[in-house]
């Protein structure tokens, strides 16, 4: 069975006085264990709503979501689902609960009754995974935005999740901070964790195995990065091609020939240099 399964999922926000806003409309797709999926779309497409549904923070208005076979609509499954699917939000300050970094990372395991010895090990492992071990005794208030987001990820990792959901987790960071967080996400994925990255940044989407583009609450495109970027549908969804891919297509019009569309700077440079020799 797939690790994540959506069956005809819709979600509506109540606006009061009997009116509502339908954010998601009849979504059906699945995600396999170990996939790196980018859920992309412009503001209002429904992607952040979907993130909260995957973590059990929201319950579908209709349809069903299964996480490892557990329905998110059954409140008896909520605790287990949130252990399996950890979420990192846009603003790391909203996730921090302790002043000292190692205490913050330990907060989740402490609240589910993990033994002290196990907590120490989990904190060590989580801080090592995000490259923040040397900061463990420092105050979170002294960290940069990118460093705070690393600690937020560490706090989730200390819960030993099987799925990591990044809900626009890099949108408040500078380019270097975004690269650092995406590098950590890629590393964790290579270690077997399923990653769902909610984003509107196509430079981030390039890193995924698969991109699912939402438009007005529906799946508009679903495929690997090269399939999605060559579909000709991104602009209709309010998104733009990654600069490297767009430059590669422009060079093709000037006579350069690439074995396949370049998705990274290294691929583009290698293709151009090969033809200039």
3D structure, described in words:
By secondary structure, the protein is α/β, with parallel strands linked by helices. It is built from 10 helices and 10 strands. The strands form 2 sheets. The chain has a 6-stranded mixed sheet, with helices on both faces. It has a 4-stranded antiparallel sheet with strand order 2-1-4-5, with helices on one face. The chain is globular, with a radius of gyration of 20 Å.
Task: Annotate the secondary structure layout.
Blueprint: E1 4-16, E2 19-31, E3 36-40, H1 47-54, E4 62-67, E5 70-71, H2 78-84, E6 85-88, H3 101-111, H4 116-129, H5 145-157, E7 163-167, H6 175-190, E8 194-199, H7 202-205, E9 210-215, E10 218-223, H8 225-229, H9 243-253, H10 265-276
Parallel strand pairs: 3-8, 3-9, 6-7, 7-8
Antiparallel strand pairs: 1-2, 1-4, 4-5, 9-10
Helix pairs in contact: 3-4, 3-5, 4-5, 5-6
Low-confidence stretches: none
Spatially, the strands of the biggest sheet line up as 6-7-8-3-9-10
Please count the beta strands (DSSP E, at least 2 residues each): 10
| Tally of alpha and pi helices | 10
Helix content: 25-40%
Measured between the Cα atoms of the first and last residue, the distance is 50 Å
Short description:
The chain is α/β, with parallel strands linked by helices. 36% of the residues lie in helices and 24% in strands.
């Amino acid at each position: 069975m797939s690790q994540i399964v959506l069956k005809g999922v819709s979600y509506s926000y109540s606006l009061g006085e009997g009116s509502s806003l339908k954010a998601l409309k009849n979504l059906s797709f699945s995600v396999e264990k170990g996939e790196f999926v980018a859920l992309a779309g412009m503001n209002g497409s429904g992607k952040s709503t979907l993130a909260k549904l995957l973590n059990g923070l929201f319950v579908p208005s209709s349809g069903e979501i299964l996480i490892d076979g557990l329905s998110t609509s059954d409140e008896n499954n909520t605790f287990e689902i949130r252990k399996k699917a950890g979420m990192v939000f846009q603003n790391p300050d909203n996730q921090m609960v302790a002043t000292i970094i190692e205490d913050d990372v330990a907060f989740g395991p402490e609240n589910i009754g993990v033994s002290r010895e196990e907590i120490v090990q989990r904190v060590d492992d989580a801080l090592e995974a995000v490259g923040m071990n040397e900061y463990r005794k420092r105050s979170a208030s002294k960290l940069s935005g990118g460093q705070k987001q690393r600690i937020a990820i560490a706090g989730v990792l200390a819960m030993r999740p099987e799925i990591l959901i990044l809900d626009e987790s890099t949108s408040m960071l500078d380019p270097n901070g975004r690269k650092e967080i995406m590098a950590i996400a890629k590393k964790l994925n290579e270690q077997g964790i399923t990653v769902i990255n909610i984003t509107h940044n196509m430079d981030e989407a390039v890193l995924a195995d698969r991109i699912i583009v939402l438009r007005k609450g529906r799946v508009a495109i679903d495929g690997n990065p090269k399939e999605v970027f060559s579909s000709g549908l991104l602009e209709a969804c309010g998104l733009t091609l990654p600069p490297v891919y767009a430059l590669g297509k422009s060079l093709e019009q000037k006579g350069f020939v690439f074995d396949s569309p370049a998705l990274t700077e290294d691929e583009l440079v290698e293709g151009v240099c090969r033809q200039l020799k």
